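#dry-run=false #mode=assembly
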Amino acid sequence: MSMSVRGVARHFLSQTGPLSVYATFLSGVGGNPTLRARIESIARQEITFDVSECTYSWTARYEQIWSHVRVRVQLDPDTGISAATMATLRTTWENAIENRWSNRWSIGRPGEVACPITFDVQWITNNAHHLVRVQAGPARSNMTLWDTSDTGAVAAHEFGHMHGNPDEYTDANCSMRTPVNTGTVMDNNSNNIPQRLMQRLATNVGSNVL
Ligand SMILES: [Zn+2]
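#status=ok
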């Protein structure tokens, strides 16, 4: 992951009085901490917020370290779905999610290095940001219910919900939805990731999408 030291340091702009580089960045951790590890620690945020769109509502959750977004997902397969099937799906889904979302845009402000926005999905078995049931496919999927027929493109769409993006396709039950028919990952699972889908991530760290 890349980081802007100058950008992360803006965290301290409102602080008055002496700022000790040693006390702030290097004390309180064992061993010989690297400056990089300390800056990552200072930059790390757990982001949680509720999303409500049309008749749908959910909670977005993820970890953000400057321009790096990490989402911990626990997959719970239905009985009868083999370990081998799940291993294949995890690889397919992770590759598609990370390739589609990463390195499309950067964040930065004038005078600060531009850092590519990158995404990591971690398949874990506890302390998840999101729980996903996996059923035998084909079926209709949503953020918390996937199936064995889901392509990487579908997984990338559902991952978009996990960090707060609503659907962008027309829905007869959601006549007020806007925008729709955008041709993006949140519309038709395409490889199109527009800048506006990154705006919240930049705002989270007081930066701009580049
Ligand atoms: Zn959706």
